[in-house]
Amino acid sequence: MNSEKGFLRWFADQRVGKKIMYTFVITTVIPLLVLQVLMLYVISNNMKSKVDEIMVNQLVQISERADLTVDVYTNLVYQIYADDEIIQCMADCQNASSKIRARAYREICGKLKRYGLSTGGIECISIVLEDGQDITYDFGMASAVDNLWEGYADKKSIVPYRMAQEGDTDMVISPTERILREGEETRIFHISKQMYDFADIQKGPIGTVIMSIDESVLNAVCSTAQEDGELYTVNFIADKDGNILTYPNSFYSGILLSKGRSVKEFVEKTGMLEGRTVAVNQYENENLGWYFYNAYDEDYILQDVRHIQYMTIAIGVLLLLISLFLIRFTVRLIERSTRSIVAGIVEVQRGNLDVQVSVESRDEMGQIADNFNTMTGKVQGLIEDVKAVTVKQKEAEIRALEAQINPHFLYNTLDSINWMAIEREEYEISRMVRNLGVILRYSVDKSNKKATVAEMADWLEKYVSLQRMRFNDAFVCEIHIQPETEKLRVYKLLLQPFVENAIIHGFKEIEYGGILRVDVMLSESQDKLDIIIEDNGRGIPCEIAERFNHPDNVDPDDRGSIGLNNAFSRMRMYYGSSASWNVSSIPEVGTVITLKIPVEERGETGR
Predict the structure, then answer these.
(1) Secondary structure of residue 466 in the 3-state scheme
(2) Can you name the CATH fold of 1-301?
(3) Rounded to whole angstroms, how far apart are CA atoms 581 and 534?
(4) Which of 57, 347, 405, 523 could join 355 in a cystine, given CB atoms 3.0 to 4.6 angstroms apart?
(5) Burial of 99: CB neighbours in 10 Å, binned 0-12, 13-18, 19+
(6) Apex 187 CA angle, 125 and 79, nearest 5
(7) pLDDT tier at 79 (50, 70, 90 boundaries)?
(8) Spatial separation of the C-alpha atoms in residues 284 and 403, rounded to whole Å
(9) Spatial CA neighbour of 292 closest among 121, 51, 67
(10) Domain 446-598 coded CATH 3.30.565.10
(11) Range in 228-237, 379-388, 392-401 the model is least confident about
(12) What angle, rounded to 10 degrees, do the helices at 364-403 and 303-349 form?
């Protein structure tokens, strides 16, 4: 809440032009930018989702083509598996006669050759007998002697044979492996299946047929898109164990994906889409147990969308710049008009009422300028009228003063009465007349000027002595002045209203026992003069006393508050906000009034 108020206060203190700019940016520019970014983000995500969907559909098609391709080779394996002649020849190979074994070997090789030539991509077809012997025809070498497995003494140790044994009667497709042939490395995957003699199936497997197929067959199924000789998408196949069955760069066919490395990292590592933003999709062929992957250059595929985004951003920025220019132009017009009006107001504050504000526009600022010029003209006329009235008032006051009795006449008259009282030995009357003269002279002579605290105390003693005579000594008065304060200066008659209020209202209807005490001292900080007027009179109602303690409630024209309103008003007029007071009263117990006024210059006299 405090931070919110702080922001609002900060905003309120800014210039009008900045407020307009900030408001425009916060309510228009930022929302539009956010909306534009969100729209571009949503469009980009939607397009990427559509592209991913297309790529997955492509992988489905590749998977279906792979199914058809593998079906061609598995059908050949099934034909070999079900060929009675081959099965019979396999039995003859177990015959003791070498002539019969040789004939059976040639017939099986001939059969395998015919099967292999019916479909392209076959590198080798082998039948491994249960005793470890093999009958092989290698199409790459066109030989039944030199073949793929010539480096293996025991053909039962080769991978496809072992996988066929583990797969029982199922057709097994072993992963692509790297094999050296005539000094060159080739990539070949295998389809293998155990064979049985259907005439004596209880005898168990009689051998295993292995068809070795070039990895290029699978590579042909995975079309790799490119444009102008540059690749932008890569399709490849891997099995569940992470073996790469085929890859556009055949160097990576037959390897195993490293554990912990993602497909995206693998593609980037191969350098096929080096330096591109790569996105990857996959599709699982449950029939083959293979995963079909597609990696594509996201920036290339979405380049049209990117162009639209850039164009949209450019147009948006251009429109925002135009808007900012127009807003700035408008703000400058407002600021120029505002500066002109403020300059006129400053001139008026300096007292120059002849100033005229010039604003060319006819908008609200122009109307303010016109009204300002009209107002200054009227104020100037009013000032002239006030000056004329003031001159007339001063003349009237002078005439009234001239008509007043000269105060010196009163002083001389009182002095004559004093001597007459002395001649008749009326010393009490003489003392009263003398005190009255001092009081009158002190009060009339520059009543709004300052006197020292000592002078004020002397005057108070004479004033109180007259009041005591008036009230038949119904009260006593104690005046205590701190020595350090005697030469400090205060306004004349500052305390008179408070003392008079205590005597007239506080001791009303009291015949004896009244105590009035006045204390004047320096505050602890030495920068204030503390004056305490205390009496044990009738007191003031609590609600009235509390009202006096609020400076805003002081009304100098209020005559219903026993003179204190006027006294407090004079304090505020003399000392401003530097003066303070406190009224504390309990009915029928007494009243304490504490005044605090600033310490001012010292002096010997108030004249």
Answers:
(1) helix
(2) Beta-Lactamase (3.30.450)
(3) 13
(4) 347
(5) exposed
(6) 25
(7) very high
(8) 123
(9) 67
(10) yes
(11) 392-401
(12) 20
How far is 343 from 372, CA to CA, in rounded Å?
12
Identify which has the larger pLDDT, 557 or 514.
Answer: 514
Looking at the predicted structure, is the pLDDT value of residue 580 above 60? Answer: yes
Domain ranges of the chain: 1-301, 304-401, 446-598
Q: Which has the closest alpha carbon to 294: 359, 227, 222? A: 222
3-state helix/strand/coil string of 416-443: HHHHHHHHCCCHHHHHHHHHHHHHHHHH
Q: In which region does residue 132 sit, left (phi positive, over 0), alpha (psi from -120 to 50) or beta (all else)?
A: left
Decide: 575 and 565 in contact? Cβ < 8 Å.
no
Q: Are 277 and 298 in contact (CB under 8 A)?
A: yes
pTM: 0.52
Measured CA to CA, the distance from residue 68 to residue 338 in angstroms comes to: 84
Indicate whether 560 pLDDT > 50.
no
At which residue do the structure tokens 């003693």 appear? 461
**Bridge partners, residue 586, by sequence:** 590
Per the structure block, which two tokens stand in for 242?
Answer: 């992470």
In which residue are the tokens 């991913």 written? 52
C-alpha 328/C-alpha 322 separation (Å) is: 10
| Strand segments (E) across 247-326 | 278-285, 290-297
Classify the C-alpha dihedral 310-312-316-318 as positive or negative. Answer: positive
DSSP state of 246: E
370 near 396, Cβ under 8 Å? no
Please give the distance of CA 300 from its chain centroid, rounded to a whole number.
Answer: 36
What is the token pair recorded at 36? 């534009």
